[in-house]
């Protein structure tokens, strides 16, 4: 009896930004806004045969204590502009962009993604996110109007409406010389009408059906509502868990939900974010990882992070001194504005109690406490050790693959591409070349409205979860 074939690993690359992952002080660190940086990063990912490149996007620079965060990228180009430009300098790499469903309209977003899918010949993907804070909403006409509890209902209707637009052009609705844009075989092509709670629109969608039919849809929420939204509507979920027990619990939970929507396990990929530090030996890598964490969490960063919990101005405290003796202020976070305004800990008073006990027991300063309580890199070790870890987690149904976030831009992916990827290829768990032309091909996903495509072996049924999820990697101040 032949042995079961191993699952194939999916790998992608997240261009860093809007976080404290980047080590800005490293001499190798480059620009986060020059197009050359995006080109270098994308070409490295494509050289390594990754599935896609991922771009996050913030709709407003975050503030804390009335000042813009040091870790925010000022001047970051528009996501669609960057992805369209990268389509011209890459051939197979998928192009994934984060676009907000709260402060946009279905028609314009559908038109932009359908256009990107045409320009890239079928490599577009949309990470659907929501927003509810009034601070971000001040940049938009309907700023702050959406109650937090309504953000997913709007997102679900937004995505459903966009899909109606994508599907308004039937396959084959355009005659052979459609490039001229002059003739339609069917006068119904592009016609749509949607009358719902959030959107009441009708007309004609003016972009013909794109190579993938619809862009690949990603979802990044971890709440119960977010998991349900992903199970109902997404092709992949941008997960948070990079450890065995927490990853298997999340994997099993999300995959379990698919059946309620008539979907199978192969129709949703689970791809956690992952950081990494490589060294010639495991010991060397762990030494480097500790230094990276110290550079990522400066004294100022540690104070800003602590302010998220305390909801107070702590600028007078010494980051190399003890934790504040005052308690956190309960209620809505008012010191941080923007994405970071969400209270990251449900019980700040209990969090402060636990942290004080930990700091006292280990004699930790504020900075040392933040370093010790925020997640270290997901993968640390020699290339062989990192390859082993990635493969083990995927084969154990803790993930279908990983979205890698290097700490150096734009060259931080180079070492992984040159050393870890060849080892995964030797094991037969990662492609040596692209087998298809579209992102749906890379992910083993069918084109909507067609018979199921040949599915990747990366989606075996999830096994029983081993434990409850652990806290996610710490967000940056």
Q: What features would you describe in this structure?
A:
The protein has 477 residues and is an alpha/beta fold. Helices cover 34% and strands 13% of the residues. It has 14 helices and 15 strands. The strands form four sheets. Strands 1-2-5-6-9-10-11-15 form an eight-stranded parallel barrel, surrounded by six helices. Strands 4-3-13 form a three-stranded antiparallel beta sheet. Strand 7 (191-195) and strand 8 form a beta hairpin. The chain is globular and about 70 Å long. The chain starts with 9 loop residues before the first strand and ends in a 34-residue tail after the last helix. The model is unreliable at 451-477 (pLDDT under 50).
Mean pLDDT: 85
Give the strand tally.
15
Assigned CATH superfamily of the largest domain: Luciferase-like domain
Summing up helix and strand content along with how strands pair, one would put the structural category as alpha/beta
List the strand order in the largest sheet.
1-2-5-6-9-10-11-15
Which CATH class of the largest domain applies here? Alpha Beta
CATH fold category name of the largest domain:
TIM Barrel
How would you classify the quaternary structure? single chain
Major pleated sheet? 8 strands, parallel, barrel
């Amino acid at each position: 009896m032949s042995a079961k074939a191993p699952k194939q690993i999916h790998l992608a690359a997240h261009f860093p930004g809007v976080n404290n992952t980047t080590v800005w002080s490293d001499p190798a660190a480059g620009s986060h806004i020059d197009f050359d940086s995006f080109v270098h990063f994308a070409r490295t990912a494509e050289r390594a045969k990754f599935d896609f490149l991922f771009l996050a996007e913030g709709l407003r620079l975050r503030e804390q204590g009335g000042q813009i965060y040091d870790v925010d990228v000022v001047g970051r180009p528009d996501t669609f502009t960057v992805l369209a430009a990268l389509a011209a300098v890459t051939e197979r790499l998928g192009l994934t962009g984060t676009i907000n469903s709260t402060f946009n309209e279905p028609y314009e977003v559908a038109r932009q993604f359908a256009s990107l899918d045409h320009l890239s010949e079928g490599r577009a993907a949309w990470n659907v996110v929501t927003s509810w804070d009034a601070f971000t909403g001040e940049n938009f006409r309907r700023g702050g109007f959406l109650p937090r509890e309504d953000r997913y209902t709007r997102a679900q209707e937004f995505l459903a409406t966009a899909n109606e637009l994508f599907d308004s052009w039937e396959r084959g609705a355009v005659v052979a010389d459609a490039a001229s844009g002059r003739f339609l075989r069917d006068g119904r092509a592009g016609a749509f009408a949607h009358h719902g709670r959030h959107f009441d629109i009708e007309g004609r969608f003016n972009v013909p059906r794109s190579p993938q039919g619809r862009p690949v849809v990603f979802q990044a929420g971890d709440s119960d509502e977010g998991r349900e939204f992903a199970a109902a509507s997404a092709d992949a979920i941008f997960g948070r868990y990079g450890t065995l027990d927490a990853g298997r619990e999340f994997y099993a939970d999300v995959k379990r939900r698919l059946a309620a929507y008539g979907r199978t396990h192969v129709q949703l990929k689970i791809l956690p974010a992952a950081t990494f530090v490589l060294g010639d030996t495991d010991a060397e890598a762990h030494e480097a990882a500790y230094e990276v964490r110290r550079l990522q969490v400066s004294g100022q960063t540690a104070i800003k992070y602590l302010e998220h919990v305390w909801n107070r101005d702590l600028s007078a405290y010494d980051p190399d001194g003890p934790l504040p003796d005052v308690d956190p202020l309960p209620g809505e976070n008012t010191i941080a504005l923007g994405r970071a305004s969400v209270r990251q800990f449900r019980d700040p008073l209990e969090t402060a109690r636990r942290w004080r006990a930990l700091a006292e027991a280990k004699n930790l300063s504020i900075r040392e406490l933040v370093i010790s309580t925020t997640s270290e890199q997901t993968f640390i070790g020699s290339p062989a050790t990192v390859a082993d870890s990635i493969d083990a987690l995927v084969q154990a149904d803790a993930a279908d693959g990983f979205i890698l976030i290097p700490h150096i831009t734009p060259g931080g992916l180079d070492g992984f591409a040159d050393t870890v990827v060849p080892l995964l290829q030797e094991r037969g768990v990662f492609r040596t070349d692209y087998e298809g032309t579209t992102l749906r091909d890379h992910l083993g996903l069918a084109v909507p409205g067609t018979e199921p495509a040949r599915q990747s072996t990366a989606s075996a049924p999830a096994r029983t979860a081993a434990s409850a999820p652990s806290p996610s990697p710490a967000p940056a101040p």
